[in-house]
Amino acid sequence: MNHSSLNAISPIDGRYAEKAAELRPLFSERGLIRQRVRVEALWLKALSADGGLPELGGLPAEALAVLDALAAEFTEDDAAEVKRIERETNHDVKAVEYFVKNRLDAVPAWRTRREFVHFACTSEDINNLSYALMLKEARDQVLLPRLDALIGQLRALAHAHAALPMMSRTHGQPATPTTLGKEIANFTFRLREQRNRFGAVAIAGKINGAVGNFNAHLVAYAQTDWPHLGRCFVESLDLHWNPYTTQIEPHDWMAEYFDALARINTVMIDMCRDLWSYISLGYFRQRTLAGEVGSSTMPHKVNPIDFENGEGNLGLSNALLRFLADKLPVSRWQRDLTDSTVLRNVGVAVSHALIAWRSIERGLERIDVDAACLAADLEANWELLAEPIQTVMRRYGVENAYEQLKILTRGQRVDAETLHGFIASLAIPEHARRDLLELSPARYVGLAERFAREV
């Protein structure tokens, strides 16, 4: 850890800096400025290519290449220059406009056309597209690949232990057996479903002026089909066109994005708590690491800290994500600025999610199954077979089947001998009696193995 991280207020840039490193180029101030410069440059290129603006006709290829370079190449020194200009303008987007103009001044073809930078745009035209691109890159380049890796890790665990019997617990009490692989498969499937919903969120944008009506655009160039041009530009960024906005894109897609991400996190909170509990029961043993300390006073401890850290960071992420989803679609009349400061924290919410996912990955890498512990739990709870016995009794018309098993087993431990004696007394076909006598808690797992292997 370097000295700057030791002085960071947020653990994202301090203690957990390495776990969120992939997001820093996307959500940092430099990342936001990079997207703003990109949008300004590509919008100017789109205006030049349209043909409806004669003043931008006949530009040489090298002049357009400068725009491509501005959109693709953005250094830390460039970001520092934008911030220097901002100290004079006291306006972040205007500083980007001046930065682009200054770069174009070096190209003779642009010197008489520099006022077309930021043409007919409000700041929100640039900002909404910049945040859309940031969140799209974060999802497609970082979050989905990381989530896919975690789902793959869980799928491998589900397949490896598909046939390993395990006692369930409903309401915390011994319940119908399953397999360890099937319980991991449940989370695998849930996360895959939520991953697909997150990946399907249409990330939208607009570039339609001060209140969404292309007012200034039409005054300058009445014959240009501005809605068509705006749509083509937004779609060229691989974003979904929103034709109906006020000054701001209403952020409904952001709410959907953050809600979808929060649902992924919620599934993982559920999983962290289950895995933590299985470690507590002894179903999983954690591999020790040389030099690691589990407690400052109890030398024996190997704490499930990765799942605890994961749960904590998931909770932080969801608190922010749900606030963002509730707040961002709400704006007074055609625009207020409450979204501006809030939007600067989207990276914080996403970063806590990524930090949590990495902790869970690490936790999964450290656990080994204790098959003997699972088997002992099952062997100590033969009363679990009360369910199949009374179900078979019902099939063959035995009166008060449920009630008979309730008297025999409710609230007490029953061993194999007691159950076998009860089965032997039943007035049921011999083949059914034989099948019940062959049952054990470890064999009573239904289709759990199949479901675990098919996930």
From TrEMBL:
Job description of the protein: Catalyzes two reactions in de novo purine nucleotide biosynthesis. Catalyzes the breakdown of 5-aminoimidazole- (N-succinylocarboxamide) ribotide (SAICAR or 2-[5-amino-1-(5-phospho-beta-D-ribosyl)imidazole-4-carboxamido]succinate) to 5-aminoimidazole-4-carboxamide ribotide (AICAR or 5-amino-1-(5-phospho-beta-D-ribosyl)imidazole-4-carboxamide) and fumarate, and of adenylosuccinate (ADS or N(6)-(1,2-dicarboxyethyl)-AMP) to adenosine monophosphate (AMP) and fumarate.
Domain Adenylosuccinate lyase PurB C-terminal: 331-445
Domain of life the protein comes from: Bacteria
GO molecular function: (S)-2-(5-amino-1-(5-phospho-D-ribosyl)imidazole-4-carboxamido) succinate lyase (fumarate-forming) activity; N6-(1,2-dicarboxyethyl)AMP AMP-lyase (fumarate-forming) activity
E.C. numbers: 4.3.2.2
Residue span(s) of domain Fumarate lyase N-terminal: 14-312
Reaction equations catalysed: N(6)-(1,2-dicarboxyethyl)-AMP = fumarate + AMP; (2S)-2-[5-amino-1-(5-phospho-beta-D-ribosyl)imidazole-4-carboxamido]succinate = 5-amino-1-(5-phospho-beta-D-ribosyl)imidazole-4-carboxamide + fumarate
Matches recorded under PROSITE patterns: FUMARATE_LYASES
One Pfam family, short name: ASL_C
Pathway where this protein functions: Purine metabolism; AMP biosynthesis via de novo pathway; AMP from IMP: step 2/2; Purine metabolism; IMP biosynthesis via de novo pathway; 5-amino-1-(5-phospho-D-ribosyl)imidazole-4-carboxamide from 5-amino-1-(5-phospho-D-ribosyl)imidazole-4-carboxylate: step 2/2
Name of the featured protein: Adenylosuccinate lyase
Coiled coil: none
Any one Gene Ontology BP term: 'de novo' AMP biosynthetic process
InterPro entries in the record: Fumarase/histidase_N, Fumarate_lyase_CS, Fumarate_lyase_fam, Fumarate_lyase_N, L-Aspartase-like, Pur_lyase, PurB_bact, PurB_C
Keywords in alphabetical order: Lyase, Purine biosynthesis
Organism this protein belongs to: Steroidobacter denitrificans
Family from the record: Belongs to the lyase 1 family. Adenylosuccinate lyase subfamily.
